[in-house]
Amino acid sequence: MKKFISVLLVTLSLFTAVPVVSHAAFGGSLSLYATGNSGSLIYIKRPESHSASTSDRTYTISAVGARGTKVRVYRYNPGAGTCYLIKNEAQIGASGLYSTVVDLTSNSNVFLVTAENGSSNQVVRIDINKIRKSTVDRLNNVTVTVRNFFN
Fold first, then answer.
1. What is the dihedral of CA 65, 66, 67, 70, to 10 degrees?
2. Are 110 and 82 in contact (CB under 8 A)?
3. Pick from 75, 78, 77: which is nearest to 87 by CA?
4. b/e for 58-95, b at 16 or more Cβ within 10 A?
5. How far apart are CA 91 and CA 77, in angstroms?
């Protein structure tokens, strides 16, 4: 009986002495060309085509995914040649929805949205172009009719 208790105590002390490490696939920075091992953890709903143009100073990125999926957002810094974490990890809840607002700091903004669930991970690139309000106004004023093509 003493041997059993001794072995049990040694085993327990080994498990408590060894720190438990959680390894995340993505850290504080990421290569623009990073890839994941899955393509189905999240589905980007906005922007629909993974690229968009807007005259606003911010943009809402939204996605759907399985409950418990961990999502992060990175912004590409062309001067440094890498992507830096701008939105800390958020976990998708029971609704399956994820949404975050990002600042558009330049005319060409590149974001990487990462998702992790268990041993699976995914990286989605999103390009958002910021255009001037005057350009949007000019585009709204353009009228194309059939007569334009025949005159």
1. -60
2. no
3. 75
4. ebebebebeeebbbbbbbbeeeeeebebebeeeebeee
5. 25
Q: Identify the band that residue 26 occupies on the pLDDT scale cut at 50, 70 and 90.
A: confident
Secondary structure letter of residue 78 according to DSSP: T
Spatial separation of the C-alpha atoms in residues 117 and 120, rounded to whole Å: 5
Which has the closest alpha carbon to 86: 109, 52, 54, 120?
A: 109
Full strand arrangement of the beta sheet holding 108-117: 29-30, 82-91, 70-77, 108-117, 120-130, 51-54
Distance between CA atoms of residues 54 and 147, nearest Å? 30
Separation CA 46–CA 52 (nearest Å): 9
As a whole number of angstroms, the distance between CA 58 and CA 65 comes to 23
| pLDDT tens digits, 78-121 | 999 999 999 999 999 999 999 999 999 999 999 999 999 999 99
